[in-house]
User: Fold this.
Amino acid sequence: MAAKRADPAQDARHGAAGEDAGEAPPCPLCDRPIPPDVPQSLHHLVPRLRGGKGGPVVLLHHICHREIHATLTETELARAYCTIEALRTHPRIARFVAWVARRPPGFLSPVPGGPRKRRR
Assistant:
């Protein structure tokens, strides 16, 4: 699945990336810069399916966004992990942030550790 390019106008409406045009905005999850040529995604802090439509979004590296959704369900995101600070406290995401922080901003990789286990 290809990464979606974030729309700068949408970023301004949602307050995701209000940086100077010459600077790459930092990823709020891993604190690495997000250059314009790197795959990036807008993450709804409260999932749209759980009442977050029109709510706050943040601009993330696509790899960081994939890790969030590989780790947590929509319900878990809505209930307990609806802020960047809360996301960083999750053990798997904390390990991912420490790992990816040592990589260059344009680093691409399959999400380590595989997808979350689905409950039935």
